[in-house]
Amino acid sequence: MYEERPARLDGAVVWAHTPAGPSGGAVLPDGCMDLLFHDGRLLVAGPDTGPHAAGEADGGAWTGVRFAPGDAPALLGVPAHTLRDQRVELAALWPGGRVRRLAERIADAPDPSTALEALALGLAADAPRPDPLTRAVARALAQGRTVADTAATAGLGARRLHRRCLDAFGYGPKTLARVLRLQRALALVRAGTPYAEAALTAGCADQAHLAREVRALAGTTLTAYTATATGG
Fold this sequence. Notes:
The protein is built from ten helices and eight strands. The chain is an alpha+beta fold. The protein has two domains: 2-126, no CATH class; 132-230, Arc Repressor Mutant, subunit A (Orthogonal Bundle). The strands form two sheets. It has a six-stranded antiparallel beta sheet.
């Protein structure tokens, strides 16, 4: 079972996943990074460029804080592109003793998700405020604006925008735009919007374009995704 709620940290989401069986769906690219707690361990999920197994094979419950796109690198102290398509122990990024104490505190808490959220809030309090330019880039691309228009509005050249996106999101602006467009389309599909309408509304050229993006980024088909997402 999967549940999520808005976090007290701006733009973030707190989620919990308790496997109900031996297999389940995949985590799809969303432009975000997550701080994870599982089996007494703290981990970081880097930005994905393709589907990632949800973790049921490890058994037990997972708790996470999914940060807003572009926010996690400043909180964790690592450029996003160094963790692309990876799940790494937080102890590989921070001193082991500190991570061990934090993990023990979360494990002993009555509600690990609340304790993990408190950790994220503490990180945000000690870090610089989110970069408004990074937020503006993510917002523009999420709205379907072109990379060229986004770069011009941000006052950045193409190369500088690409470097900033690699550090903040883990991949360049074109890939980020594709990921965010896919998420828009799949949200519409989950809400019952016909495929062709969802494709055009999200910014795809047509339904065939959306189908290709689902295969490339989600590793499945529109029909299979809909059946999984709706329990059909």
